Structures are given as C-alpha cells and as structure tokens.
Amino acid sequence: MTEVDRVLQGLARLPVAEPSAALSESLRAAAHARLVPAKVHPAWSVAIAASVVAYLGWAILYTSQLY
Amino acid sequence: MAPNPDQETLALLARRDPRGFDAAYAKYGARLFSFLNRLLGTGQRQLAEDLLQQTFLRLAERGPELRADSDLRAWLYTVARNAFLGQWRGRKQELDAGSLELVVDYSADAEARLMLGDVERALARLRLEDRELLLLVGGEGLEPLAVARLLGVEPATLRKRLARARQRLLQELERAAPRALAEASS
Q: Domain ranges in chain B?
C-alpha cells in the first residue's frame, strides 16, 4: 500500500458526527408533512358539490324564465 | 449490473410513503452532516444543520419524482453541495476566517489524536476544492465517476485533481506530524 493510499484510508476512517436529535425530529416532521398532503375535510367536498348544484339549478331556472 | 441499493427507499418515496424518507435519513443523514461539517471546515455545526435540513426537505419535495434507477446517494450529495455553495458564496470571508475546530473531539485518545485528529486538521487547512474532492472520494466513498458527474468535470480531470489533492493533504499531514507528536507526548 502506498503512502498516498494510507491518506485516503485515513479519510474513510474519519468518524461520523450525528446531527442533534431535535433537528432530526423536526426535520422528520416537516418532511412527512410535505410528503403526505393534508387531507381535505369531507365537509369541504360536500360544500363545493352543493354550491355547484345550487348554481346549476339557478342557471336552469333563470334560463327557463327567459322563454 | 448491480441492483440499486436504494431501490426500496426510492419506491417508498415514489408512493409518498414517509418510511422512504426515514430510511434515506437513517442511512445518509449522519454521513451528509459530517460531510457538510467538514466541508465548512470551521466547526459551524449550526450552519451544517441548516444545510442538512435544506437537503432533506428537498428530498421530501422532489424524492417522489426520482426514478427507480436514480443514484440516491449521489443525488443527496449534489443537493447538499449546491446548498453549501449557495451559503459559501454569500459568506466566503466569514467561513474562511473561522477557526479550525474539529468535527469530533479526539482529546481523550492520544492515538486517535495522532491519526484522525491530524487528518481532520490537515483537511481543514486545504483549499475548498481539494477538501471537497477528498471528502467525496475518500471520506464518503463515492465512485469517482459519480463524483465527476457531481462536480461537472471529465473523469480524467477528476483523476488529476484527486492526485493533486491527495498530495496536498499528505504535505499538510507531514507538516503537522512533529507538532502532533509533541502534543501527544506532553
């Protein structure tokens, strides 16, 4: 083994420093939140569907009154 | 062709499964943190943590788009390096003027102080380009071809730069050796 190889081997043996537990925990929470999109409450879906039906109803009624 | 060691992690990420992120963080988090810490060369742990955070939040955002055959490790080091360069350009003088603190305290073990402590100190004295190259190839064990792609240089250029960087590290180690020996024997 050459002297230069020993240098690279020394680099490979350098110990690993751990990030703080607080950082790891907050990072995991933030990453999970980005990975899993927040679920929309079912009430919002019902509200949107109801508003579409109401608008269509109104549009039909309005159109029928024109003729 | 060898199977992708991160195939399962990438598949989980593609399904936006948080376990994919956890697996990637468990496998590469500490290594990337050490890499960033040593790249900064100034013992700026807080800044290294900020860069680590940027890197892994990027993984959470872009991970689901990575292909199944992607080299996750090389991708993470590329993102970490870009995050580092963004900081370094803005704070070059501040970072260059920092003290040469060690990433790990070797004071309890004389032999480790002589061996690994010296390597850390010598590494911290090198130019950023040399330090980065040695850390990626020697410290992190990335394939030279992957490092060439990461740094955007030809493989032949990388080999030459690596040889020069090794030489400079060796010179730094030789220069530091008598002092370290004196410290260890005192």
A: 1-101, 104-186
* A4 occurs within a structural domain: no
Query: Are A17 and B32 within 8 A, CB to CB?
Result: no
Q: For the whole model, what pTM was predicted?
A: 0.75
Among chain A residues, CA nearest to B113: A14
Nearest residue to B133 via CA among A13, A14, A6, A11:
A11
> For domain B104-186, which CATH number applies: 1.10.10.10, 3.10.180.10, 1.20.210.10, 3.30.70.890?
1.10.10.10
B57/A28 touch (CB, cutoff 8 Å), yes or no = no
Q: What is the ipTM of this complex?
A: 0.73
pLDDT tens for B54-111 read 999 999 999 999 999 999 999 999 999 999 988 877 766 565 554 444 455 545 454 4
